Each structure stands twice: as structure tokens, then as C-alpha cells.
Amino acid sequence: MACKCGGYYYTLNAKASFDRDLAKTRKFLLRNVSVIRMFTSGFFRSKWRSIAGKRRILSMDAREKSRSTILESSKDKRVPIFVMMPVDIFTLDASGCPRIRKLKALTVSLKALKLAGVHGIGVEVWWGIVERFSPFDYDWSLYEELFKLISDSGLKLHVALSFHSNIHSTHGKGGVSLPLWILEIGDVNKDIYYRDQQGFSNNDYLTLGVDHVPLLSGRTALQCYEDFMLSFVNKFESFIGTVIEEISIGLGPSGELRYPAHPFGDGRWKFPGIGEFQCYDKYMMEDLKMAACREGKPQWGDKGPQNAGCYNSLPSGVPFFEEGKESFLSDYGRFFLEWYSGRLICHADAILAKAAKILKKYQENEQTSVMLVAKIGGIYWWYQTLSHPAELTAGYYNTALRDGYDPVVSVLSRHGAALHIPCLEMMDSETPPTYLCSPEGLLKQMQSVSKKRIVNLIGRNTTERLDKTGLWKIRSNCYNPQAEVVRSFTYFRMNDSIFRVENWNNFVPFVRMMSTDL
């Protein structure tokens, strides 16, 4: 016999067990409510790993052979929940060194989440903290302390190696910059960062134009990323595959594979602007010129599209994103977009190849298997137009006439990486109809191409939702019958509102339902 409770279904025995656990959690929270309320920051993020079976990093041949097994084995499985650490978990002490904020409050919060059934915690491992002061001077002490705290709480880890800054997105509150020695180089040469057509540079992430240029104290950007990954693996080798279950590799702004075409926090862009192309640093422009010469059209290499509007333009009236002789459908338009998106895909390919090679030895032992993860952006506004302009400026050559996510996911498949997809809580009906949004259409497309390319999925929310409707939508998308069940879900992120009674009473049943085999 089954009973219905607030939209969630349990057998009577399971419900009684759940009620006992929920009562225990409530008592725990009440005893520590004053400590938990110390977390009053705003935004939080996460990334995590699936308890639903360890996956090895497989070659394409092996993955092709096991296609039906992989897809079938994911059905009717639990979807472990990870919760991302607060965005301001670190602060600077009087000497300018990072430390963990409000350690007692964090300890209590971790115990509460464990009691609620949360599987693990997502932690951003910042390049700007570990290699902060000088090249090769890696200081892992902060993360040794934090990882031990999480492990001692009985929780697993999704680690996000973060090669970006979040200063602008946090409005300076608890933000982490790029390493200070990188910023010093950038003060002299701003072309190590992405630039827009006005010449404004964005120092949240190094331009992919310096991936192969030794400007960073004798190293290329790719060498810096590789050395950082090697140092991490050497330091936390004993945690990999046991406590650390997923390792996400930062590929761009916010850790996502994309260009910073929609910079929020510095006043240049606001939703639902189409954004701007980010290819005007001298290294990318040199590459564009070479590509144009190879095409036999050297004039195409002088600049990016000059009729593509500005950050806050809407598609209507912007010639490049409409149909016409000088639009994205023209010979020049196709050339530029193939180059622009292709450089981004090559960037991902190079970094993921290095990450997969570093992690390969851990895949030789089933007990140390770890999932390699790559994060993609959720550019869902103007998705229902012909040109998908906001996606084009972000580097996804995805239109109503072309699948731009297939070549991206193909790279992930080649390196055995899982795809971290956004928007699982979002509904088309809740978006402004004027802006032709479709988070559901975008999600469906990503699920379809991931199934085609045999790539595991990890889900995350884009906006904070703690109401039953939003949480139920997440669950529905995680168990979409037309797609592979996601391997895990990352809730963005831990903050004060999660522990409020009205939200906690929704969040805990959601976690329990996701963590139970169907």
C-alpha cells in the first residue's frame, strides 16, 4: 500500500523510516540553528559524483562495445545529490592568505546535510588560491583541511579544478582572483585575457589564444593547467576514487566551456542581451588572420563580424543574426562561426586530453575509479530563434539548422568525460515569452546528443529552487525516460535559505527520493 505526501510517494514502511530520520535532522538543526544562521551569504555552487556505480574512463572502442550496457544500467538507479560549497567559503586573513570562514558553522551544516541523505559536497579548487603568489609555489593546506572536514562528516567529494576568477560574479564578496603573478603579467599585457570589439579585457579567465604561447613565466596556459592538475593528483592521491568521486576540469568562465560573451557583474551585459564575440585579443586575431588566409579570403581575418550588435542588443534588427547576404548564413558568417566555435572545441580537447592522461593510472584499479567531468553553459534565451544569437556569441555554433553541441560532446566522449548539464529546474512556461527562451529545449538537445555519443550526464540547477514544483522538475529531468538517467545531481548551492524550515521540509524529501532505487 502506498501513500501520497506532498507530491512524493513512499511505501508506509519507508515513510515511517523517513519521518524518524527527518525528526532526527530537525532536532539536530534546532540544536544548532544559531550556528547555521551564521551562513548569510547569497549565492552558492556545486559539482559532484554519482554513487550509482563507479565508471571507468574508457576508450572510444570500449565505450562503443558497452553502449547498451551503459545506457541500460543507468535506468532505475538512484541519483546521488551533491551540494556545492558556499561561494564565500574562503576569506583572507590579515596577512592576505586565504582561510576557511566560520568553521564551526560549516561543520554543523555538513552534518545536517549528511543526516538529510546528501551524498557529497562540491568544492571549487581555485588556481588563484593554491598557486597564488608565484609560479610552481603550490599551497594545498587549505584544501587538506577542508577535504578532511568533509570526509570526516561521511560525505564524498566532487572537486572542480577552477582556472577562472569569480570576482565579478560575487561583486567582490568572497571572490577569488586569478593567481597574483598572472595578474601582474596581465597588467603589462592585457592581451592574455579575452577582449571584446571595444578592446575591453575580461580578466576572469585567460584567453585560449595563449594556450600555446609561453607568456606565463616561460610556460603556456596549457602547461600551467597541466602542472596544476599534476600537483593536485600527487597531493590527494589517497583520496582519489575513495573520497573524491568526480573531478571537473575548468574550461572557461565559471568553469564552463564558453567565451565570456555575457559578462555579468561589471555592468556591460544584462539579460536577455545577445552578448558579443570575444576574439579581439591579439593572439586570437593572429589565429583568425591565419585561418582566413588558409581559406583564401585574407580580408576575412581583419576583424570579427561588424554587424552583430552589442551586448544588450536583441536579435531583431541585428543583420548578422537575421537572414541576409551578410548574416550568419553567408559564406563569411559560416567561416567565422566555424573558426570561433572550433577554437573553443580545440581548447577543450587539449585540456581534457591532459586530464585524462593524468587520471589514466587510477582507472587501472577499479577501486580508484574517478569520473572526469566537463561543464557546459546553459544559454537558453533566444533558443527558439533561427540563429540562436546568444549561443553563437558564447561559442556554441548551434542554430535551428545546425547541431552545435554534437562536436562538443564528441570531444568529451573521446576522453571519457561526463557532461555537466544545466537548467534541470527550469520550465519554458516560467520564462518571459518575449525573449523566446527554451531551457527545456536546450536540455532535451543536450540529453539527445549525449545519448548518441555515449556520454554520462551530471545535472545541476541554474537558479535556486527549493519549492516543491522546482524540485519535482529536477527529479523529472533526472529520470527522463527518453534519455539516460543522470549519474548525479549538483545543487547550487549551500546557503542560509536551504536550512529554513519551509525549504528544508521540501529539500530533505527530494534528496531521499533521489537517493532511493526506483
Automatic annotation (TrEMBL):
What is the official name of this protein in its record?
Answer: Beta-amylase
Coiled-coil ranges per UniProt: none
Task: Give the enzyme class.
Answer: hydrolase
Reactions catalysed according to its record: Hydrolysis of (1->4)-alpha-D-glucosidic linkages in polysaccharides so as to remove successive maltose units from the non-reducing ends of the chains
Name the Pfam families for this protein. Glyco_hydro_14
Q: Which UniProt keywords apply?
A: Carbohydrate metabolism, Glycosidase, Hydrolase, Polysaccharide degradation
Q: Name one GO biological process term.
A: polysaccharide catabolic process
GO molecular function annotations of the record = beta-amylase activity
Family affiliation: Belongs to the glycosyl hydrolase 14 family.
Q: What EC numbers are recorded for this enzyme?
A: 3.2.1.2
